[in-house]
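Can you please make up a protein's amino acid sequence together with its fold in token form to help me picture the idea?
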Amino acid sequence: MTERIREFLRTRREDGPCVVIDLDVVRENYHAFSRALPDTRVFYAVKANPAPEVLGLLAKLGSCFDCASVVEIELALAAGATADRISFGNTIKKERDVVRAMELGVRLFAVDCTAEVDKVSRSAEKVGVADARIFCRILCDGAGADWPLSRKFGCVPEMAADVLEHGHRLGLTAYGISFHVGSQQANVNAWDSALASASAVFKECATRGLSLSMVNLGGGFPARYLKPIPGVPSYGDAIFRALSKHFGNQLPETIIEPGRGMVGEAGLIEAEVVLISKKAESDDVRWVYLDIGKFNGLAETMDEAIRYPIRTARDGDATVPCVLAGPTCDSVDVMYEKTPYMLPFSLEIGDRVLIEGTGAYTTTYSAVAFNGFPPLRQYVI
């Protein structure tokens, strides 16, 4: 917890859970990525936290933006980004949304099949755009990631050249390849095999007369939770080595799409203990109910993929295993039942708990008034 967040919470008077984002941490993270990969453009993944203050800061720092929807594109533009600094990175787009993005000036689009290429081509014709660029997302296994992203998005590398050639024949610019090594990727070498696949696609496209220019290295850069993680420079070194290994002296343009790694550690949630109970007197495990749960911003505790650091004013007291649960009347609103969380035995109803590393994917995953509970309140300082 930063001193700025500590001071803000000390004077906060409102009731209910909230997340506080420290922009100084976001700024430091942006500079860390820029230093680690100085020849790579940063496209912040807006979905991680689309707060206008976050986007505005990053726009001023020179960041580009990876957007998954027209709304996110409009948010990036409103924050000060120009359309040439925006990628429509979702491979699943309604054609009318592609049209709208082009009307707003966006020219860079992700695809992973010929049907998506057709949408971009028809949209370009409709809007009168002659310079639309496409990049094809390929599958990779995501080994080492807490959230592998290995099936929903992307095609097998062997199919990518066909997708890009199809776009070229329709008048689009076949621009490059993208992949994602999985969210919260702890293995700095995870990019190596994906870059090998990307290099193979570049070579196959060259035999077809297509000169690709760009590799989108995706996201995956982790935030610090309970497990130690490598620093950003370690990722930069490993990625540069892999690029040199697979592309030699003909290095492509590169972009990265940090989201969690940019804002995760900038945020902290303050929540309240609503109830503490047992299911039987003989149980060793206690249930600690908070005023926040899976539907109020902690969706990434699903399958216990993310284990957030939790702090209390009673840390240092003897601890007992606890299952955490949210306030809603839904039986899936339970966290850490498989591996209970060790919390102070002295914890009481009404105590505040601080959940660290919650700057990413909390407000965006917070449901709108499920059971009447309002969306997670956010303060950006």
Notes: The chain has two domains: 89-258, 265-380. The mean pLDDT is 96. Residues 191-207 form the longest helix (17 residues). The two ends are 13 Å apart (CA to CA).
